[in-house]
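Bit of a strange request maybe. I'm writing a small parser for structure token strings and I need a real example to test against, not something I typed by hand. Could someone generate the tokens for this chain?
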Amino acid sequence: MIKLHGRIADGVPRWVVWCAYAAPLVVLPSGIWRILLVVADAHLMEQEPLLNKPAPVPTLWDGPVYVIMLSLVSELLAFLTVGLVATWGEVVPRWVPGLGGRRIPVLAAVVPAAIGATICTVLWPYAMTMLALGRKMNGDVGIMQFNDWQALAFWGTYTPLVLWGPLVWIATVHYWRRRTRVTSPAEPTSVAG
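Reply from user aminoacidic:
Good idea to test on real output. This should exercise your parser:
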């Protein structure tokens, strides 16, 4: 049976599939939080009065467009973890012009996945620790102000990001092992289709 996410590759244990599917799910709450913050003007953070503040300088890395794009790109990157357990992570889907049907080199998937997993494994626990200590990422004091329900919403949506890196690592290591495993002559080889 073909599903929207593709068919699960042969030899992938169910628990690894669950880890791969969990990656986009742990990223989703923070994306929703950010989008609600800018689009719906949900007051999820205490806002400082604008009196005696210089007018903000517009930049490419600021504002609603950036926040929405950050949320969408984060979710897309997290969804790529599913490719580590699905057949489309081993063979380019036939509908892709020029590349359809070609096998994906193992390192073409493993290297970016390992880099992303490492970044997420280091970044999110560090970021959450710094925020819990009331500091910015660079160590300066003070960053965000929340009332009780806002703090609950923030920590409830961002804390799952701590799992993102380890989940990608699990899927990446299993992908590497599965794709580089040498089959013995007694073992039948299976063809992913």
